[in-house]
Design goal:
Distance between the termini: 62 Å
CATH superfamily of the largest domain: Periplasmic binding protein-like II
Largest sheet: 7 strands, mixed
Helix content: 40-55%
Number of helices: 13
Structural class: alpha/beta
Number of domains: 3
CATH class of the largest domain: Alpha Beta
Radius of gyration: 25 Å
Number of strands: 11
CATH architecture of the largest domain: 3-Layer(aba) Sandwich
CATH topology of the largest domain: D-Maltodextrin-Binding Protein, domain 2
Length: about 325
């Protein structure tokens, strides 16, 4: 049977939508309830799909329904197809009104408080009617959101090689700095070495985390072991709050100070950390159509990053706020 007879004329988007809903809900009954249709309607939609592709798509049991290997293959590509259709509709909307639309961006909490804020300020002034949906979460969650096509792009720190199914563009390299409370006695020193701070109370990320590895490399470059931390947490806001209290030290990305997005109780110490840097960039899915609004956001991110390398750049960025 030719493709157009087997699929082109017989496979319906509505039936695919029903199958995706069943897979998400884990049962036909729950899918029927979510779709506001009857159970027989869901059963028929799945049966019609199975007849069209010539393979069983769901395993049914008393506990519900889950995709077979055939079903998983169809669901995987159906998700891509629906995403491309959504992108097509967004492009049509953009053509009808280039100054309106929506953009979904994933990022880390610290970048959301700093560089992303500067990008959003520029973007929203130029395109005030385009809505930005910002997901600020830990790395695993943001990358999962990108893989599931819940966000258009990621604005993240990059560590190591990029996975094959992703495209990555480095915007700039972010140094790390040692932070102390504004009233900490070390802030009154004109120059401080990392070795002098080894016995101070530190709050640091876990050494297994991405940021934690940067911290380990920073001490290693100075011929030092990672100091024993009094508090270990991967939460930058928690570490910043502890440091602001006056007793602790930590290592944070320079953007915490560069964009003025942190608590006023923090101050960067004059410690040289040449080995502690990370790339900040944009990550997108390969072979996925970028929406016009997302492309405009990427252009604003590039422009904002370009300003960081120029004199008086932070004055210009601050003036946008």
């Amino acid at each position: 049977m030719r493709w157009q007879d087997r699929i082109g004329r017989r496979l319906k988007l509505r039936d695919l939508h029903v199958l995706l809903t069943v897979a998400q809900c884990g049962s036909m009954a729950k899918a029927a309830e979510q779709l506001s249709v009857s159970h027989p309607v869901v059963s028929k939609a799945v049966a019609d799909l199975e007849h069209a592709v010539g393979a069983p798509l769901l395993e049914r049991s008393a506990r519900g329904a889950k995709p077979t290997s055939y079903g998983e293959a169809l669901i995987d590509r159906a998700g891509v197809a629906f995403d491309e259709l959504r992108q097509a509709v967004r492009r049509i909307d953009f053509l009808a009104d280039p100054m309106a639309g929506e953009v979904w961006v994933g990022t880390s909490v610290i970048i959301a408080m700093s560089f992303a804020t500067a990008v959003i300020n520029l973007f929203s002034k130029r395109y005030p009617r385009i809505v930005i949906h910002l997901l600020a979460a830990e790395s695993g969650m943001t990358y999962r959101a990108l893989d599931e096509r819940k966000v258009d792009l990621l604005l993240v720190g990059m560590f190591g090689p990029t996975q094959e199914h992703l495209d990555a563009e480095v915007l700039y390299h972010e140094p790390y700095v040692v932070a102390a409370g504004a009233r900490n006695s070390w802030t009154r020193r004109p120059k401080v070495t990392l070795r002098e701070l080894m016995n101070e109370p530190w709050t640091l990320p876990s050494p297994e985390s991405l940021t934690g590895r940067v911290v380990v490399e920073a001490f290693r470059a100075g011929g030092l072991d990672r100091p024993r931390a009094a508090v270990v947490t991967d939460s930058i806001p928690a570490r910043n709050a502890l440091v602001a209290s006056g007793r602790y030290l930590t290592i944070v990305p320079e953007c915490v100070f560069r964009f003025g997005a942190t608590q006023p109780g923090l101050k960067a110490l004059p410690v040289d950390l040449p080995a502690a840097r990370r790339a900040i960039g944009i990550v997108t899915l390969k072979n996925r159509t970028i929406s016009p609004g997302a492309q405009l956001f990427i252009d604003c991110a590039r422009e904002t990053a370009g300003l960081l390398a120029k004199p008086q750049s932070m004055t210009r960025i601050a003036a946008r706020k």
